[in-house]
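Database export, one record per block. Field names are fixed; values are copied verbatim from the stored entry.
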Amino acid sequence: MLETLRQFGAEALEAAGEMPAARDRHLAWMRGWIVRSLATRSQQDHAVLLLHSAHEIRNALAWAKTNPERATHGLAVAAAAGLYWWQRSPLEGIARLSNLLRMAQAPSPGLRSRALYWMAFLSSSTEPPAVVVDLARQSLSEARRATGLPTPPLALALNMLAESLLYVDDLEQAAALSAEAVATARTIGDPVLVAVTLGPNGIVAFARGDFTAARNAWEESRDLFMAAGDTMMLASPLCWLATLDLREGRAAEAEQRLAQCADLLRRNAEIPRLTEALPLLAGIRLSVGDDAAARAFLRDAVAAARLTDVRTEVAPSLAGAARVAAVGEDWTSVFLLCEATRRLARAREATFMDWTALRQLQADAEHHLAAPSLAAATRRAAAMTRESALDFASEVLR
């Protein structure tokens, strides 16, 4: 009934020649509404609103492409919907932001910075690190040009560039920019923004081997998110702290954090990050001989990877499947999955994965395979794509 009424109204507007003006009003309303939601709602509430409004957002963006002035309004809508693109369709988000940024009529430096920030954020899962660094640099340049004062876009742009530099091994500059991001957020006085900037701050410390600083940053981030009631963002420091717990031999504490993290991610439909937490839970279960639970966690991780066009968080699931195959001494599968992990891993994953253990597992497989079998497995592995590797992992995990 509602769709029938919509169609009737649209036909009436079209017949009266009023459709362009009506769509302009809709686009302007969408811009004000979605930007207000971003500024006034929690992350999880804004994400729910975006999910329920996806059809309206796409309708507005389709009209925004019709001329440069409308494209400026559309760019603001697409940037404010960044969380939706991340959770549901990063590639679509990148394409829409990129096209609207090219078309927009003299967008302000602040709007350009926000759009470039989300392009960098979304590209971190789909593009080589150098591309992400370039977009993040542009975002920071526009944020500095927008105002000489500390602003949330400036803190986020600093944060994005710091994290992206980490994955091209520029730890010195990453540390400096991360410290500036945290200081900017503290000056603004927004606890949630401080918590957001402390995440990459801890990642930089972890990469430099300063695990005490990493724990301090992530614990403060966790506490700030908890105080703000932000259950969506809380999952990230929980997962990072669990990684430290595992490194320090505290598997029980890590498992408790990861279970809470996975629950929060499921409740908030944060599919991409589920593929980070679930393989860690699988590893803990496998280490105590609970093969069935490990398989279940990894099956869920592989299923989650299929539900999004994010290209990053595949390697942890493949590495977990290799460990499961090793339990059954299926050395061909071990070799194939280790090779697929190595070939498909992105720089972000390389920071936290145990590559020493994976190399040893692959060496064990090579030792057990006869030369003809190893040669055949090597050829097969070279032809594996992300999708075929996930298919193969699913077979192993049945």
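Remark 1: The chain is about 80% helix and 0% strand.
Remark 2: The radius of gyration is 23 Å.
End of record.
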